[in-house]
Specification:
Blueprint lengths: L1 H5 L18 H29 L25 H15 L5 H27 L7 H21 L6 H6 L2 E2 L11 E2 L2 H22 L7 H19 L1 E2 L8 E2 H5 L10 H19 L9 H17 L5 H5 L1 H20 L9 H7 L4 H20 L6
Antiparallel strand pairs: 1-2, 3-4
Helix pairs in contact: 2-3, 2-10, 3-4, 3-10, 3-11, 4-5, 4-11, 5-7, 7-11, 7-13, 8-10, 8-11, 8-15
Length: 382
């Protein structure tokens, strides 16, 4: 919004020349990060008090670890505040003519609505069930499918560089232009949709301990910020065809408009850090599905736009591990009647083994940082 309103004014008077800084994505990404963080810091105390007044408290699973019983009644649905700060900072600092911005915010809001309904039903029924899984998945596939269909098939509305690359699959640690993999558009579309839905649910499964999910979310968002910016960054003041294109130098897909997603990712980092101040162990507020589903969906579509569907498995390794542990546990129990883990998702397994909650959280964070560094190193390890 500020970009749209203020940037055109830079030529109206010499003293307005400083507004030229708004053209630079790094500046607006930093501004969005700070805006979301400060807004979260400012609103969180009031928001938590309102949740307490309305008795919007966490409903604890009766079959969960005994240490969680004391968490019952802790204010939940704090993800609504994350979304508010994330979306406000994004709209404030992004170029609103960018189609990728609308795609990622639509998925974020849509999945947030699904998460809100899930949290609402849990609170209303005083149960940990919420929206039945099949209906939740139906909503996720419908919203994600509609947004991705627009991105993959609306030729006149999407940037040509994205449209030309939409069927290509980037293989981690393999040079992109030397070994391109071109998938049929239908298969690429299906893979993209699975990526978005899977990431959303994986983050949701990870959100089982105080600040366990939000830490890796911030780390992932920061990494996607780098990927988005490098995918579309150009340097130089000469004709656009003569500019230095970072993506071509790094041998990764060049998608000029994708760099604007760095502002969205910066806003997610800021909103996440602001929430972490109150969600850190012992948590004063929980994220709830309204936060985990929406943030996971946002990360998933960032992976699709930057052509990092496969590399997102490495970067989001913590989320992937949590989701796989649940799948393995369910398959094993239904086929053999035996459990592979003491309890799934896997963070509960470590709780059952006697690990203190803070130790699990910090160690998962450390692994997430290492995976982010490994993912970024894919630029050179090829």
């Amino acid at each position: 919004m500020l970009y749209e309103l203020l940037f055109p004014l830079r030529n109206h008077a010499p003293w307005l020349g400083f507004l030229n800084v708004l053209r630079y994505v790094p500046f607006r990404a930093i501004a969005a990060t700070a805006t979301a963080m400060l807004l979260s810091f400012a609103l969180s105390p009031w928001f938590i008090r309102e949740l307490q007044k309305k008795q919007i408290g966490q409903v604890v699973r009766q079959d969960g670890p005994e240490s969680h019983f004391k968490k019952g009644g802790t204010p939940t649905m704090g993800g609504a505040l994350i979304l508010l700060c994330l979306l406000f900072a994004t709209v404030l600092w992004c170029d609103l003519h960018n189609p990728f911005v609308w795609a990622v915010t639509t998925v974020t809001v849509g999945y947030g609505v699904i998460g809100y309904l899930d949290d609402y039903l849990k609170l209303r029924d005083r149960s940990s069930r919420g929206v039945p899984g099949r209906y939740k998945l139906l909503g996720q596939f419908t919203i994600g499918g509609a947004v991705l269909a627009y991105m993959f098939f609306a030729h006149d509305s999407m940037p040509s560089d994205w449209f030309d690359l939409r069927g290509q699959l980037s293989i981690p640690f393999v040079a992109f232009h030397k070994h391109p993999v071109m998938l049929p558009v239908g298969i690429a579309y299906a893979l993209a949709l699975i990526t978005v839905v899977a990431m959303s649910n994986a983050v949701n499964l990870t959100d089982g301990l105080d600040d366990l999910a939000i830490g890796p979310v911030v780390i992932n968002a920061g990494t996607y910020l780098v990927w988005a910016y490098r995918a579309g960054a150009t340097f130089g003041i000469t004709h656009v065809a003569q500019r230095f294109v970072v993506a071509r130098y790094l041998d990764i897909p060049f998608i000029g408009s994708a760099s604007e997603l760095a502002v969205y990712c910066g806003a997610m980092v800021g909103a996440g850090i602001g929430f972490l101040w109150y969600n850190t162990y012992p948590a004063s507020v929980f994220m709830g599905d309204v936060g985990s589903l929406s943030l996971g969906g946002g990360l998933g579509i960032c992976a699709v736009i930057t052509k990092n569907e496969l590399l997102s498995i490495v970067l989001g390794g913590i989320f992937f591990l949590e989701a796989v542990s649940v799948i393995v546990q369910v398959i094993s129990f239904k086929t053999t009647g035996k459990r592979v883990f003491l309890m799934a998702p896997i963070h509960h397994h470590f709780e059952k083994k006697g690990w203190p909650e803070p130790k699990i959280i910090v160690r998962f964070w450390i692994v997430s940082v290492l995976l982010a560094l490994l993912s970024l190193s894919s630029l050179k390890l090829r």
